[in-house]
């Protein structure tokens, strides 16, 4: 009986070995900034091996089915001919019936089913009509089956490595996006990594290990299991799968105060499955909550009047200035000299900051572009799960664009790539914006492009062209431009900056975007509309989100500034603020009179409370009064006391924080209530459509 499970044992040992090596790599990876003691490493390995065993058992059904259907009797007359006829009929059903079940499912399911059945017919026919070759054919099919398992094990390990290398995490929602937006993602991988050598190495390793496992286990095919053995094996397998699913429901809930420890001991596949099935989290099911009226009253107490729908009535007349909002891809604060960087990779932005209203202690709401766009467009705290931009109920919201549109502005969203990515086109068009994206370019207007879009310099020229057209209409304009060049693979035209465009370096991507912005402003200064325009320059999120805690604050700190010659006086605003406060502050500077449901604040109002909202897909945090309070599934609450640390290279600007965990009995209960109130109220209002126009 032992012979019948040898393939599972060999493949299982191979999988556990690869997973063990991967964990060792993660522990010593430069992105892993945590210090692990011996007991920590021991726990990581024990929990990790247990996770891997359970996951491997769950991923074995195809191999089990393969052995279950191994038989010589099915090729005997008349059974063989009946089975072959049924397979051919099934293929004809897929080919000839227009509305068959596979085509109803959509996508490429019908093509996949047809290819599978076609291959099955070919193999079955060979086995049926060439009985003397049956053993060789079966051996070949067994080799291919083992090869596919080995290949997937190695490929998954390599994928997890690169994902961890990028984000400091196992698979999450981003990995799910990678399957949805295959064009951009595959293109990004092709342009970022040496794909051909990498795949050749993966293939070669898979062949080597497959040959070894095949030689050790092929003897099983000489003595096929009988019906009794198949029933026993099937029963044992089903029992093990059930136990594994139950076991994973416990091991995947094992949490740690150290995020790296939690991620390294986890297995990526259950995390991917969880992310795939949890696009949006029901706040009231997964998070701590209080009485709804109490939550709303607590949250709204920061506004004047303390109500969701408020009227902003400045004492001065409105200023109908053009507004250009520039969201810069992945621009961490510490890329700029103002925050202590010594590489001189943002010379233009640093010079512009000296002439601007600069926000020196501002935090992004999340670690994805859609979160930054959500914060600047909707001005609401982030909610659990996916950004509202990627949800179905994302249209007719109260947005910055809707305010400008009500004032007679032309409103556009500009993006160098294809705006269907991340659902941006659907969201912005559904909220009254016109779209200018890669589809708007003629071939002559593109000097360089990669998978994410045209180079920022090309987009800058297109933006100027767009604004010139708008200015001729006599109407003011509000344009939101999202840059793309500072994104892996970090490729851009050669000869523009002192870092080659094919070096694929993060610093090069930052410096080229800075160069492109300089070119944009040089062109803008020559236009008649420039003197009557306000520019808002802000990052969408930081370059990395990996850290020792769930929400490492230095991975959320971003630069932001408002610039307008002769209108905005240079100054530095140093209080803690959120990405969602930027646009309400701008509207106040323009003296706009409007009704609002924005949940950000004008930072110069007397009601402003210094604070910031930071979040991942699961963890929701509030930075306030030198505390970071985090609420997470399942109704978990953590709090860290923050100790300010000044960077000696830029003491005036560079306030960072050390995060020290606060035990439950010492936690600041008032701040916990405020954190719950903010996220609970936002989730409730979105669910009830109270933030719609």
From TrEMBL:
<feature type="domain" description="Sulfatase N-terminal">
    <location>
        <begin position="321"/>
        <end position="591"/>
    </location>
</feature>
<dbReference type="InterPro" id="IPR017850">
    <property type="entry name" value="Alkaline_phosphatase_core_sf"/>
</dbReference>
<keyword id="KW-1003">Cell membrane</keyword>
<protein>
    <submittedName>
        <fullName>Phosphoglycerol transferase MdoB</fullName>
    </submittedName>
</protein>
<dbReference type="InterPro" id="IPR050448">
    <property type="entry name" value="OpgB/LTA_synthase_biosynth"/>
</dbReference>
<feature type="transmembrane region" description="Helical">
    <location>
        <begin position="195"/>
        <end position="215"/>
    </location>
</feature>
<keyword id="KW-0808">Transferase</keyword>
<feature type="binding site">
    <location>
        <position position="369"/>
    </location>
    <ligand>
        <name>Mn(2+)</name>
    </ligand>
</feature>
<feature type="transmembrane region" description="Helical">
    <location>
        <begin position="7"/>
        <end position="29"/>
    </location>
</feature>
<keyword id="KW-0472">Membrane</keyword>
<feature type="active site">
    <location>
        <position position="369"/>
    </location>
</feature>
<feature type="binding site">
    <location>
        <position position="329"/>
    </location>
    <ligand>
        <name>Mn(2+)</name>
    </ligand>
</feature>
<keyword id="KW-0812">Transmembrane</keyword>
<feature type="transmembrane region" description="Helical">
    <location>
        <begin position="142"/>
        <end position="164"/>
    </location>
</feature>
<keyword id="KW-0479">Metal-binding</keyword>
<dbReference type="GO" id="GO:0005886">
    <property type="term" value="C:plasma membrane"/>
</dbReference>
<feature type="transmembrane region" description="Helical">
    <location>
        <begin position="41"/>
        <end position="67"/>
    </location>
</feature>
<keyword id="KW-0464">Manganese</keyword>
<dbReference type="Pfam" id="PF00884">
    <property type="entry name" value="Sulfatase"/>
</dbReference>
<feature type="transmembrane region" description="Helical">
    <location>
        <begin position="79"/>
        <end position="97"/>
    </location>
</feature>
<keyword id="KW-1133">Transmembrane helix</keyword>
<feature type="transmembrane region" description="Helical">
    <location>
        <begin position="109"/>
        <end position="130"/>
    </location>
</feature>
<feature type="binding site">
    <location>
        <position position="541"/>
    </location>
    <ligand>
        <name>Mn(2+)</name>
    </ligand>
</feature>
<dbReference type="GO" id="GO:0016740">
    <property type="term" value="F:transferase activity"/>
</dbReference>
<feature type="binding site">
    <location>
        <position position="487"/>
    </location>
    <ligand>
        <name>substrate</name>
    </ligand>
</feature>
<dbReference type="GO" id="GO:0046872">
    <property type="term" value="F:metal ion binding"/>
</dbReference>
<feature type="binding site">
    <location>
        <position position="540"/>
    </location>
    <ligand>
        <name>Mn(2+)</name>
    </ligand>
</feature>
<feature type="transmembrane region" description="Helical">
    <location>
        <begin position="231"/>
        <end position="250"/>
    </location>
</feature>
<dbReference type="InterPro" id="IPR000917">
    <property type="entry name" value="Sulfatase_N"/>
</dbReference>
């Amino acid at each position: 009986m032992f012979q019948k499970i040898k393939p599972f044992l060999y493949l299982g040992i191979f999988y556990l070995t690869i997973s063990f090596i991967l964990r060792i790599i993660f522990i010593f990876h430069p992105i892993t900034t945590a210090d692990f003691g011996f007991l920590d490493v021991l726990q990581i390995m024990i929990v990790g091996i247990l996770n891997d065993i359970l996951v491997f058992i769950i991923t074995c059904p195809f191999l089990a089915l393969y052995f279950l259907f191994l038989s010589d009797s099915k090729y005997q007359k008349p059974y063989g001919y009946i089975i072959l006829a049924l397979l051919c009929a099934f293929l004809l059903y897929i080919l000839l019936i227009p509305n068959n079940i596979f085509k109803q499912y959509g996508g490429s399911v019908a093509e996949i089913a047809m290819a599978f059945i076609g291959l099955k017919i070919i193999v079955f026919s060979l086995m049926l009509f060439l009985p003397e070759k049956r053993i060789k054919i079966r051996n070949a099919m067994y080799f291919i089956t083992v090869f596919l398992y080995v290949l997937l094990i190695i490929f998954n390990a390599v994928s997890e490595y690169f994902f961890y290398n990028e984000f400091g995490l196992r698979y999450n929602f981003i990995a799910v996006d990678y399957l949805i937006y295959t064009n951009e993602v595959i293109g990004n991988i092709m342009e970022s990594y040496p794909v051909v050598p990498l795949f050749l190495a993966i293939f070669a390793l898979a062949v080597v290990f497959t040959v070894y496992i095949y030689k050790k286990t092929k003897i099983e095919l000489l003595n096929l299991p009988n019906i009794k053995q198949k029933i026993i094996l099937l029963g044992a397998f089903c029992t093990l799968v059930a136990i594994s699913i139950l076991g994973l429901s416990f091991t995947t809930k094992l949490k740690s105060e150290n995020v790296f420890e939690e991620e390294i001991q986890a297995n990526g596949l259950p995390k991917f499955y969880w992310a795939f099935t949890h696009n949006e989290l029901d706040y009231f099911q997964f998070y701590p909550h209080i009485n709804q009226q109490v939550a709303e009253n607590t949250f709204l107490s920061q506004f004047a009047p303390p109500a969701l729908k408020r009227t902003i009535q400045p004492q001065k007349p409105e200023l109908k200035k053009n507004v250009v909002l520039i969201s810069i891809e992945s621009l961490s604060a510490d890329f700029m000299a103002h925050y202590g960087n010594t590489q001189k990779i943002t010379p233009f932005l640093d010079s512009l900051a000296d002439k601007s209203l600069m926000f020196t202690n501002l935090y992004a709401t999340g670690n994805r572009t859609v979160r930054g766009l959500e914060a600047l467009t909707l001005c609401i705290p982030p909610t659990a799960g996916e950004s509202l931009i990627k949800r179905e109920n994302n249209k007719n919201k109260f947005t910055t664009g809707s305010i400008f549109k009500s004032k007679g502005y032309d409103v556009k969203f500009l993006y160098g790539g294809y705006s269907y990515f991340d659902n941006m086109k659907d969201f912005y068009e559904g909220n009254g914006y016109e779209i200018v994206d890669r589809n708007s370019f003629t071939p002559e207007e593109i000097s360089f492009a990669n998978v994410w879009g045209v180079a920022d310099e090309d987009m800058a020229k297109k933006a100027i062209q767009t604004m010139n057209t708008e200015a001729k209409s006599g109407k003011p304009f509000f344009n939101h431009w999202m840059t793309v060049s500072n994104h892996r693979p970090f490729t851009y035209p050669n000869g523009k900056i002192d870092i080659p465009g094919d070096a694929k370096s993060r610093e090069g991507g930052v410096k080229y975007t800075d160069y492109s912005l300089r070119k944009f402003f040089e062109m803008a200064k020559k236009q008649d509309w420039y003197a009557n325009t306000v520019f808002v320059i802000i990052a969408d999120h930081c370059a990395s989100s990996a850290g020792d805690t769930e929400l490492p604050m230095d991975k959320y700190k971003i630069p932001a500034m408002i610039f307008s010659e002769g209108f905005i006086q240079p100054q530095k605003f140093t209080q803690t603020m959120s990405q969602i406060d930027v646009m309400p502050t701008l509207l106040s500077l323009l003296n706009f009179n409007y009704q609002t449901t924005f949940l950000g604040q004008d930072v110069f109002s007397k009601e402003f409370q210094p604070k910031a909202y930071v979040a991942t897909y699961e963890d929701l945090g509030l930075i306030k009064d030198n505390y970071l309070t985090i609420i997470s599934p399942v109704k978990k609450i953590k709090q860290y006391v923050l100790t300010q640390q000044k960077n000696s290279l830029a003491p005036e600007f560079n306030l960072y924080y050390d995060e020290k965990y606060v035990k439950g009995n010492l936690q600041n209960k008032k701040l916990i209530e405020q954190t719950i109130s903010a996220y609970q109220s936002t989730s409730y209002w979105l669910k009830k459509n109270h933030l719609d126009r």
